[in-house]
């Protein structure tokens, strides 16, 4: 049967925010995007070009002004109800009254996983994010980067088939960031998860992605889609970061971004 549904399908989606005194901002205009199951797609573009808006629409945290979105063939709303995806946004969004363990196991608890299953999964995830010693700490006892890692672990708790991530590594130091990127590549290979990943870092987008979607601001549009796939998880290790193919990918994305109006180019990391 040939009915494999895309993980994400965005068709002719526009989102206009009404402003005071009638002024309005077209955050997205006529955006089309299809993400295949297991595919890793990054969104990159100047500050204000609508990346977070697009992610929020996919997650059904906002509704489009026009156009259609589906997640695994379902309306975005249904996918949210069914919890078909994990979310990690820039603000960690942890529950302050729950410990690190309590926060990570929350999605599992909501779905009725038993205590021993939850504890086993949480200890795996704590190891992954390097916070085993902080299992009993509360969010306000952690640094911003540590909180962010807890939020990532929570998003991964149920091994979702789709991950929506908005600058999830923005608050991490460079070493931790690269380690989390390596882990994300491994996790995606293991779980076959599709990922829509917002970042300001060109190298990060190139290292992680099958495709990089370049956007321009006001109105937010997709201006380029660049194939950068640098191979499977076995090839994507630290040595790739010094590889010719990697530098070529970085150059391609940078050139595409330079086609984007300079007025909106603040906030784009052009390392
Ligand atoms: N709730 C809202 N109400 C009004 N305008 C909004 C709202 N959310 C976003 N916008 C506007 O939509 C545009 C796109 O915002 P968005 O947050 O999607 O940008 P972004 O690409 O994620 O930027 P950044 O890289 O800075 O995070 C901006 O001009 C912003 O002011
Ligand atoms: Mg944003």
UniProtKB/TrEMBL annotation:
The answer to whether the entry has keyword Transport is: yes
Highest taxon in the source lineage: Bacteria
**Residues in ABC transporter domain copies:** 8-242
**What SUPFAM superfamilies does UniProt report for this protein, alphabetically?**
P-loop containing nucleoside triphosphate hydrolases
Key words, A-Z: ATP-binding, Nucleotide-binding, Transport
One function term, GO molecular function aspect: ATP hydrolysis activity
- Recorded protein name is ABC transporter ATP-binding protein
What's the source species for this entry?
Aeromicrobium ginsengisoli
């Amino acid at each position: 049967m040939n009915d494999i549904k895309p993980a994400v399908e965005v068709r002719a989606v526009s989102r206009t925010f009404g402003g005071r005194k009638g002024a309005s901002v077209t955050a997205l205009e006529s955006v089309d995007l299809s993400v295949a199951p297991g595919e890793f797609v990054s969104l990159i573009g100047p500050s204000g070009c609508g990346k977070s808006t697009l992610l929020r629409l996919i997650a059904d945290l906002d509704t489009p002004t026009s156009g259609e979105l589906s997640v695994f063939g379902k309306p975005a709303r249904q996918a949210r109800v069914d919890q078909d995806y994990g979310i990690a946004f820039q603000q960690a969004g942890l529950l302050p009254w729950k410990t690190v363990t309590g926060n990570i196991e929350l999605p599992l608890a909501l779905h009725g996983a038993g205590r021993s299953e939850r504890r086993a999964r949480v200890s795996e995830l704590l190891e992954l994010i390097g916070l085993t010693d902080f299992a009993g700490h509360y969010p306000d006892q952690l640094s911003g980067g540590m909180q962010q890692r807890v939020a990532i672990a929570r998003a991964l708790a149920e091994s979702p088939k789709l991950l929506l991530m908005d600058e999830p590594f923005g608050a991490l130091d460079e070493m931790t960031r690269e380690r989390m990127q390596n882990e994300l590549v491994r996790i995606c290979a293991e779980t076959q998860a599709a990922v829509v990943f917002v970042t300001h870092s060109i190298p990060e987008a190139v290292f992680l992605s099958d495709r990089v979607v370049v956007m321009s601001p006001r109105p937010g549009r997709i201006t380029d889609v660049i194939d950068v796939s640098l191979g499977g998880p076995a090839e994507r290790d630290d040595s790739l970061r010094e590889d010719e193919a990697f530098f070529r990918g970085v150059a391609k994305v940078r050139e595409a971004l330079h086609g984007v109006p300079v007025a909106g180019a603040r906030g784009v990391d052009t390392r």
